[in-house]
Amino acid sequence: MVYRRTPAVQARLDAQAALIVQAATRVLSRDGFAGLSMAAVANEAGVATGTVYKHYEGKTDLVTAVFRRVVAREVEAVRAAAAAGTATERVATAVETFAGRALKNPKLAYVLLVEPVDAVVDIERLHFRHAFAEAFEFAVAEGVSRGELPPQDARTSAAALVGAIGEVLVGPLAHAPHGESVVPELVSFALRALGATR
Q: What is the pTM of this model?
């Protein structure tokens, strides 16, 4: 007879896996990808290292789970920011949200954006960038169709914005606290790049 987990057992295991992902997120926020180990995560979560391995095969599997959880939350915040208003308002709010949230947790944002990681995790990073680009693409396409922005390929413009924002944030995130002008400068750049008029 095959053993089947009861809903209560499954709920307990799911809660434990979520606790481990939260602990891994804290370790990444403090020590980066290079400083994350299964033992460090177990210590942070208050569980045995074997318990971490029961849920995640290794560091790559665990970090992939963190990327999926954190990125889904961040992408949703940017999508919500880009959901209403004129094209200019939507792009400005999306840029402010993307950059502002990154700068609130610089170490984790650095991990998500550029820190060298395993190839499997890098695939998650690409999904992350595409998801952000889609949020911008929709706003740009609507802006073009309404005549608020000049004609342009919305997909190309959106991908370029995400790349530019990420590149600008790499310096502040990697080396020093950001200046107060970083986010406003990024908003101004994005609007100029799209040909928006305020």
A: 0.82
Pick the more confident residue, 5 or 69: 69
In the block, residue with structure tokens 């949020």:
135
Give me the phi and psi of 148, to 5 degrees please. Answer: -80, -25
Rg of the Cα atoms in the chain: 19
State the Cα angle at 126 between 99 and 121, rounded to 5°. Answer: 105
Say how far residue 6 (Cα) sits from the centre of its chain. 34
Cβ atoms within 10 A of the Cβ of 76, count?
Answer: 12
Q: Which helix (H) or strand (E) holds 195?
A: none
| C-alpha torsion sign, points 111, 115, 121, 127 | positive
Six token digits for residue 92: 């400005």
Largest CA distance in the chain: 68
Residues 6+ apart with CB under 8 A from 119: none
Give the amino acid at 31: D
The model's pLDDT over 96-117, given as tens digits with 9 standing for 90+, comes to 999 988 888 888 888 888 888 8
CA distance 127 to 57: 21
